[in-house]
Amino acid sequence: MPNLLAMSFEGLIAPSFTYASGRQDEPPPDGYGLAYFPGGEPAARLLKEPARARAGGRRLLERWGGAQSSLFVMHVRRAQWGAPTDANTQPFARPYAARDWVFAHAGSLDARPEPGKDPRFEPVGSTDTEVVFCLLLERVAKGRHRTLAEVGLKRCRRWLDELGEAGDLSCVITDGHDLFVYADPRFKGLQMVRVRPPYKRIQLKGDDLRVDLTRRGTAYRKGVIVSSDPLQIDSDAQLEWELIEPGRTLCIRQGEIIGSLKPAPEAAPTSKRERLRRTLPRPKKASAQLLEVCHETTYRYKKPVERSTHLFRMEPLRDRLQQVESFSLEISVDGQQRDYEDVFGNRVRRLLVETPFTELSIVAKSRVRALDRDPLDFRPIHQSSTMPLVWMPWQRQVLQPYLLPPELPETQLLELSEYAMSFVERNDHDLLETVLDINQTIFAEYAYRQGSTTLATTAFHVYSERQGVCQDFTNLFICLARLLGVPARYVCGYIYTGPKNSNQVQSEASHAWVQVYLPEVGWRGFDPTNGILTQTDHVRVAVGRNYIDATPTSGTIYVGGGKESLKANVRVDVING
């Protein structure tokens, strides 16, 4: 049975805590303590049952099941840890810097640390753990740090190393936003499990405690669970406990490990202004290259089509980041043709056919010089870099088509909104870091599976099933961005993946990605299918609110046709010179 259990999840979860009967050959625990932050607020709620009472413990733990939070810290106390009172029952909480800080300790100290002179924080109970907590907060306040992110992992570990000279100090500390986990070099039992959707059932079982993460339907959250003694996992997902290396210090935020320090004899000093931030991949500067694209599409019909209209968006866009050196479009069926530019700036060819045909072949060939060498080559964003974004009325009017999320049931949009906000909170409300995180997370946590979705698949379905193809990942990214008030649009085009790339299937068909509008920067491309920013391997052909606005080919058959079959092939090559 663990005496320390801590959990951090993206968004709110409502786990069920149930007191089990325990083993007959061991005395029951003296009591329990649980701390959480209801609704993600900075104020913590502590529920404690320090007395040894099986029935009372069972009722109390069942009541705890209604709590909703992204952070939970639970501690099981034993008789040898002082008198059974609330003051001696972990976890402990103290208010500081307009938020509650929570601390819990899994180890055992050999000697009681000495409090400082004229302490700002004083222990109420008689435990050594509370003294350590007060000493930590003294150091935080002395450095005028207001959050754990401002303290930083290196500084926090140095403090814990110093305080841990009195014994094993494996512990967790949280300010309601970050969860710091410290594995004492002398303690080898602290472990963790990473929870990744999709899953339908996750239960943690021990002799005295059972935690059900999915009893109330929280099947779409990812998270990290830390325990001083692994509980048995009953789940339909593949979850395994990992040993936290003794001496390692972790920072967990919104269910993601955003910082990790390996064991070291000494932690290097850190500057006072340093702030903990997740390091996300940045694109390297690329060289401009000339790409040749051949896109062939063939429609076949069981019966002759006697009258029809067709739209073709197959000519690449022209702007400062992309030069079109040549383009040709060959259509096997004659008809009335007209070229024009649609409201999104796409070059469109409209074809009206009034002579019967059973096969329609379209071959688009183009040469494009891609020039987007460095997609992040712009001056730093200042006032507009944090979320929520504020748009001028005329800006919002122009961007409105790219700010409206898809029509989904309100319950699904609320779920997706919470998911989107977890990225904002994980990245300290920084706009660029948030969209980079969304892009990287979809790439890392969503499986690319052809045939698993259709054109009717919604963003919520992709989110819940964690699988799809490029257009599905694009739709999900767009939905999340728009729910955060960030303009996003659908891009259809091509990608060069190399002659023998694992993503070769993407270069044999049209590709889809996202463009996000950054204030004072403009539209920037993000490819969640590959976890990259668009550079000189991408060719933009059409943009729009969604797939319908940017689809390469579409049409309406008025007379005839019958059963239709479609065959498409795309080839992208690099031309030297």
Secondary-structure blueprint of this entry?
Layout: E1 4-13, E2 16-19, E3 31-36, E4 45-49, H1 54-64, E5 69-77, E6 92-96, E7 99-105, H2 128-142, H3 148-151, H4 153-163, E8 171-174, E9 178-182, E10 191-195, E11 202-205, E12 209-212, E13 223-227, E14 232-235, E15 242-243, E16 249-253, E17 256-261, E18 289-312, E19 322-331, E20 336-341, E21 347-353, E22 357-370, H5 393-399, H6 410-426, H7 431-445, E23 447-448, H8 459-465, E24 467-468, H9 470-483, E25 488-495, H10 504-507, E26 511-518, E27 522-527, E28 532-533, E29 538-544, H11 547-550, E30 553-560, E31 564-575
Parallel strand pairs: 23-24
Antiparallel strand pairs: 1-5, 1-13, 2-12, 3-4, 3-5, 6-7, 7-8, 8-9, 9-16, 10-13, 10-15, 11-12, 11-14, 16-17, 18-21, 18-22, 18-30, 18-31, 19-22, 20-21, 25-26, 25-29, 26-27, 27-28
The CATH class assignment of the largest domain is: Alpha Beta
Shape: elongated
The major β-sheet equals: 7 strands, antiparallel
In whole angstroms, the N-to-C terminal distance is: 68 Å
Rg, alpha carbons: 29 Å
Placed side by side, the strands forming the largest sheet appear as 4-3-5-1-13-10-15
Mean pLDDT: 88
CATH topology of the largest domain: Glutamine Phosphoribosylpyrophosphate, subunit 1, domain 1
**Helix- and strand-based class?**
alpha+beta
Total domain count:
3
What portion of residues is helical?
A: 10-25%
- Shape-level CATH architecture of the largest domain: 4-Layer Sandwich
Unreliable runs, pLDDT <50, ≥5 residues?
266-270
**How large is the count of helical segments?**
11
Number of strands: 31
The CATH homologous superfamily of the largest domain is named Aminohydrolase, N-terminal nucleophile (Ntn) domain
Strand content: 35-45%
